[in-house]
Amino acid sequence: MYRIITALSSLARTGWMLRGVPSTLAETVAEHLFASAVIALEAGYRLKDEGVEVDPHKAAAIALAHDMGEALIGDIAKVSGIDKTRVEEEAVARISGWVEQLYKEFEHSSSIEARIARASELAATILRARRYMTEGFKDVKEIEESSIKALDKVTAGDEKLRKIMMDLLEA
Question: Domain of 135?
Answer without folding.
Answer: 2-170
